[in-house]
Amino acid sequence: MTDLADFTARLTALTDGRASAPRIKDGVMTIALDVGGLSPEQRDGLAAAIREGGLTVPGVTDVRIAQTAERKPTAERTPAQERKPLRILAVASGKGGVGKSTLSANLAVALHRLGIRVGLVDADIYGPSQAKLMASEDQKPVARDKKLVPVTGPIGIPMLSMAHLVEPGKALAWRGPMAGNALSQLIDAEWGDAELLVVDMPPGTGDIQLSMVQKHKPAGAVIVSTPQDLALIDATRAVSLFNQAGVPMVGLVENMAGYACPHCGEISDPFGQGGAESAAGDLSMPFLGRIPLAIEIRRQSDAGDPPAAGEGIYADAFHAIAQKVADWLKTA
Ligand code: ADP
After folding, report:
1. Is any ligand 1 atom within 6 A of the Cβ of residue 256?
2. Model pTM greater than 0.70?
3. Which of 83, 121, 167, 250 is the most exposed place for a label (fewest CB within 10 A)?
4. Is the domain 8-76 a CATH 3.90.950.10 member?
5. What distances in angstroms separate CA 86 from CA 105, 127, 219, 267, one per listed residue?
């Protein structure tokens, strides 16, 4: 048995500083590992060694390693004059509970793994969940020159959420301009050299959403829907909100599409298949892909360990969508 301090010191030596500090919750140790420049064999070897070491820490029953793309120190990055302007990608839905936040978090992680310098804004001010999804609840942003400086969770993505600023439930009393101002502070924060802000929009299509879209002009919008018709009617409303503000559609994602059996992995479709895809066609927008309803996605999300940071079929589903978004951004 090794204690955590011991393991952390060995981890730094073993990975040559490529690993984040380990985080342990409910027996699960999470570590972000920068695998930039390593061969697949080196990655696997390092991950196996970390896993083996992590399991010797008392109380640790599982070790999860989030492999991230290379992040060079700021000085070596693109000089300021070549820096790309910060663009906003809005992730929206016509109503709550369809998995908009889950998609935003995993999309940010998958785009980050593609080497895009992303930041993440939780604009869902009445039900902020990104701090939990990205395991950064214990962090507090500071203000510099009247701008907020984002926090960075274990995966290395800068982010801001109302949950970092106010006690849970407090923002619920905010309406109209106050909510709008709060949102603007999150978006106009000090994002450093980030080139893309993934913005988890408030659910629905009210005034707050419209003024946010008009004021901050996203480069594009991704709409999330579930396969049920009702949710698709709501998705149609979200699409018209962006159309009204002249924001291009990146495409539609179908979440909770089919149920993945936790025992055998087989996917069944209680709501039928293809609804969202044909709805995307009706709305003349691209269909970006589907994410199954899977207990593992929910479990990992609750534990602050986004599936897109790991490997497997759920990670692949998020990565395929992120690749389409990245391709879209290149042409936009
Ligand atoms: P929204 O942001 O649209 O309100 P969330 O992302 O918060 O929705 O998701 C609502 C709930 O559904 C959360 O508990 C989340 O973990 C769960 N969830 C989202 N997508 C999936 C999925 N594909 N499989 C299983 N659970 C999911």
Report:
1. yes
2. yes
3. 167
4. no
5. 18, 25, 10, 38
Distance 206 CA to ligand 1 centre (A): 21
162 ligand 1 Cβ < 6 A: no
| Beta partners for residue 246, in sequence order | none
What is the tens place of the pLDDT at every residue in 217-264?
Answer: 999 999 999 987 666 788 888 899 999 999 999 999 999 988 888 888
Ligand 1: residue of 91, 102, 104 to mutate (most ligand atoms within 8 A of CB) is 102
State the pLDDT at residue 263: 84
* Fold: same for 8-76 and 83-331: no
Counting from 1 in the atom list of ligand 1, the atom nearest the Cα of 257 is: 23
Per-residue pLDDT at 38 exceeds 70: yes
Q: What is the pLDDT of residues 196-212, one digit of tens each?
A: 999 999 888 888 888 88
Between vectors from CA 320 to CA 205 and to CA 298, what angle results, nearest 5°?
Answer: 65
**pLDDT value at residue 102:** 98
- By DSSP bridging, strand 158-161 and strand 28-34 are unpaired
Among the listed residues 225, 226, 221, the one whose alpha carbon sits nearest the alpha carbon of residue 245: 221
Which residues, 6 or more positions from 167, have their beta carbon under 8 angstroms from its beta carbon? none
Domain boundaries, the chain: 8-76, 83-331
Q: Is the pLDDT at 184 greater than 80, yes or no?
A: yes
